[in-house]
Amino acid sequence: xxxxxxxxxxxxxxxxxxxxxxxxxPRYEAYERAPDWPGNASARPPVAGTVARDxxxxxxxxxxTLELNRELLEQGRQRYEIFCAPCHGITGKGEGxxxxxxxxxxxxxxxxxxxxxxxxxxYDVITxxxxxxxxxxxxxxxxxxxxxxxxIRALQLSQHASTEDLTDVQRAELEVDQ
Amino acid sequence: MAQVFQPRSNAIVRIVFIGGACLAVxxxxxxxxxxxxxxxxxAESVPQQPVPFSHQHHVxxxxxxxxxxxxxxxxxSFAGIPDTQTCMTCHSQLWTNADILAPVxxxxxxxxxxxxxxxxxxxxxxxxxxxxxxxxxxGCESCHGRxxxxxxxxxxxxxxxxxxxxxxxxxxxxxxxxxxxxxxGFEDLSPEESGQLVAHYGIKTDRLIECMTCHR
Lengths: 178, 216
Fold this sequence. Notes:
The complex is a heterodimer of chains A (about 180) and B (about 220). Chain A is an all-alpha fold. Chain A has a domain at about 70-160: Orthogonal Bundle (Cytochrome Bc1 Complex, Chain D, domain 2). Chain A has helices spanning about 1-20, 70-85, 85-90, 95-100, 110-115, 120-130, 140-160, 170-175. Chain A has eight helices and no strands. With about 220 residues, chain B is mostly helical. Chain B has one domain. Helix content of chain B is about 45%, strand content about 0%. Chain B is built from eleven helices and no strands. Chain B has helices at about 10-35, 40, 55-60, 65-70, 85-90, 100-110, 130-135, 140-145, 160-170, 190-200, 210-215.
């Protein structure tokens, strides 16, 4: 009789012991702690000089080489509103929410100096930062930087449009509205 | 010799038996309820963080999009936790003397990562992918709740297998248009609109409850 008790107890203990072994497997998930590694971090910065597998090796083109279409502008708008609008504002006038809380105000993107800048200039500002504005190269990919540059150009044109630029149909619609 | 069992013993035996059965059922019900309770699953828990980061201030108050900080959420399985440089894009100029931000500044100058504690963590034998959810119409709010109202990040779902399957069996009420994925407080769509979104995203509901989808 006592032996059966013992066996029963051993089985219960064995079950309890094996519970959730699989939940912590001997591999690192993204950003998992790695004790005794530098910074206790399993995610390591790449060794200096590392080239990413999909990196472009040719020099950055002087101007937009992607096809300029609605899709590119929509992508540019999305990324602009995520990464730039907190400071530069949805309209680009430099009155974003973070500026209203005390961040130094950026110049309006509609001033004549910035209206004259080439698209490559915006690309470079995103890559390297400018003055108190930090670099966004870690979060905005090269293609997205061109998309944002193209969208900023569209934003600038939107503030300096005249009725001459409209098609006849659009002008007729505008006159009905008024 | 007097009788050992009085006639009323029958009643006592019955009461003991029925009571015992009731107790057993009650214990079982409580055990089931307990195993699914927030206490065991960790839902509602609020881990202590190195800096008391507030989504309420940054998302609700300042209107910053989730992807400003959780940048890889729509391009990889991992949503990403912002690096210190991301905090410093603003805090190099704002609240530069605040004591609560001292760990952020130290991390930046000493090039040492901040050790944020996980709020949501699945067991390693479950495969999860953010990209396939947020690019197919499932908003952050469906799984993480109203972040714009959380002064400290709180776990809002149990992450049990039942929780995943409840949605995978019928995801259509949870779907949103692609422009509203990170929006908080999104109004539910009508059944017709949801049905159109299932077709728009090309979601194949039969595949979603196969074991291989999550255990691979």
